[in-house]
Design brief:
mainly alpha; 28% helix; single chain; 1 helix; 54 residues
């Protein structure tokens, strides 16, 4: 009987840890926080700038 309970527990646990139930943050399409800056150079991330010390 404990084997059946253990099997149910494992199946429920595997469902909870499934990527389907992971929390994720979605970017707003409209409204506050929706503005996204495009990088000038596709290889460069926006906001990162390094200047060479001369």
């Amino acid at each position: 009987m404990s084997n059946a309970l253990n099997k149910k527990h494992r199946s429920a646990k595997s469902l909870v840890f499934d990527p389907l139930f992971r929390t994720r943050q979605e970017k707003a399409k409209k409204g506050k926080g929706s503005y996204a800056r495009k990088p000038r150079n596709p290889q460069q991330e926006p906001g990162l700038r390094f200047s060479a010390a001369a």
